[in-house]
Specification:
This protein is mainly β. Helix content is about 10%, strand content about 55%.
């Protein structure tokens, strides 16, 4: 059964994650290195699993006007190079969570539209699904 994206959210924090206001979309990419183990004389390639990694990104309306804004927290984490605990909710019960470094933060200020923010995360260790 399909799930409507409107129930998703991005939240920051380990024990009691706080929703990042203004986010309109997020994406998560999980990848795994595959190491070739094919022997000479084989007709088919064979592989074993290597290292895993994850990255994520989000886009939305810019909201750092208040000190307690979670977007402001993310901007400070980027500026200071500190790790954040990010939770990417598909709906109220399904989410991916892990520690990440903010690898990119972009602000766009068009004259004919709202100010937008884009943030990219690089996972720092494992990501979990619940």
């Amino acid at each position: 059964m399909a799930i409507a994206g409107k129930g998703g959210k991005l939240a920051i924090g380990a024990s009691d994650p706080i929703k990042v206001v203004g986010i309109k979309s997020w994406s998560l990419d999980l990848s795994l290195d595959t190491l070739e183990t094919t022997e000479l004389g084989s007709d088919w390639k064979t592989y074993i699993s290597g290292l895993k990694e994850w990255t994520a990104s989000c886009d939305g309306d810019y909201d750092v006007q208040t000190v307690d804004s979670v977007q402001n927290t993310l901007q400070e984490a980027y500026l200071n190079g500190t790790e954040v605990e990010a939770s990417f909710f598909v709906d109220d019960t399904h989410s991916y969570a892990g520690k990440a470094i903010i690898s990119s933060l972009s602000v766009e200020d068009p004259v004919d539209d709202v100010v937008n923010i884009s943030i990219e995360f690089t996972g720092n260790g494992a990501i979990s699904f619940s």
